[in-house]
């Protein structure tokens, strides 16, 4: 390529011109010159490479020969502007070469070339292909936008700190957390922005990263903008910046919710454990295969076991007798109950346990329900020993229906038996009888020997009475020294029933009239035995198949007893109805 007059400057030697030519050819930029007609008068090698043409195909040719029409028109307008105004033009332009047709971006500087007499004789220019630079800028711009989007939307707090621990960059979330604008944070240290203790903790973390140069991750805790502590999982590492001092780049994720959930799980686990272990009731967990997977101390005690190893992996049937109280085999009943728990979610039932160690059986109440434990559905069974409750129930029943001194049924239970006997009599057509009796001269035993002796006598009366009746009959104590005997299914006719009941009444009267030998401790703790004579006055009434109510029947017997008492005691009187009584004493 030769440098023509447009570029030549007077005074250069041929060698110098050659050197200049070589230098211009070695430039990465395209260098060109044109005359006033727009014909290329000089181009360097880079220009030829750019248009994909040889030197001779360029020099002396026009824009239209080298570029597509649109590009050529644009470039022509620029050229004319330079020539018309005489000004230097610098601009970015896009060109599509004829060769390959790729669109490139150029930064072009064009300036006028003046002739010897100061007139413009053409223009020269330098074009630098900045396509890749422009792409990098586009990429940078896109990356910046993406980063902004990320920083604004990702639930993380991003920050960069210098070696002096001052913030260089903070994402919007950091600003939100610290309740300051980024401008109020950048250039400041944590010591200036956070409470002392928090700043110390954060600094210690940062120091570790700066000192070791190793990426660190860990938990941090800061006071939140809305109060309360907020927990973060922070990852920090050094950011190498060439010649610049390293700085720290960090990302902290807010894990408060997770942390609180973990704490809640941990505390509910603790609560569960406390309740589980502290429960006075036995608590057992069964897996899907109905094997015990956990139990508390109370359960071990209930089952008579010394350690969990004796329980875990075994089934409820392993701790049960072959048959339950209802007569159903334990294995069948257990399967039925487990089915119910599975379908209804819970079930409460009584269960007979057999302790493997000593073979003892005890009744327990089981409250079982399906629960979700660590993602697995298990059965939680609370087992309560019913022995004590059953004892209480028996005691309450005893108090409610039995006389505490003699253990005989009391008035309430007597009436219950009587109403059943009346119903039975109606069905069977058999007569029954009620014998009301009151001891004669009982009071003196209390007066002479004290109530202890009187109590003994009353107990002895109860014992003697029981000897004269069948299992289906009832002997009850109505109170004081008054007793009543209920005879059921006595006879199908009234006469036969009279005779039969009379025989029983006479035996009772004779037996109760026998001497009572009473042994008791005196107030001086001396055991003494006394004898006492007393008898009983008896009033009797029959109840026919279609008789009155229980109260009426008892009143009639009571009335007859008073007649017997009035007749001199130790007598038997029969109530015949309508207030009529007859002595049956032989
Ligand atoms: N030891 C004792 N005495 C009782 C009890 N309940 C009532 N008594 C006494 O029993 C006596 C009953 O009185 P009464 O029936 O009048 O005595 P009684 O000597 O049999 O008189 P008569 O029936 O007229 O022959 C009273 O003195 C009561 O205090 C008891 O549970 N234990």
Automatic annotation (TrEMBL):
Residues 16-87, 268-306 form the PAS domain. Keywords: Nucleotidyltransferase, Transferase. It holds the Pfam family PAS_4. The keyword tRNA-binding does not apply. Residues 430-577 form the GGDEF domain. One of its GO terms (molecular function) is diguanylate cyclase activity. It comes from the Bacteria. CDD domains: GGDEF (cd01949), PAS (cd00130). Residues 90-142, 347-398 form the PAC domain. InterPro entries: Biofilm_reg_signaling, GGDEF_dom, Nucleotide_cyclase, PAS, PAS-assoc_C, PAS-like_dom_sf, PAS_4, Rev_trsase/Diguanyl_cyclase. PROSITE patterns: GGDEF (PS50887), PAC (PS50113), PAS (PS50112). This is Diguanylate cyclase.
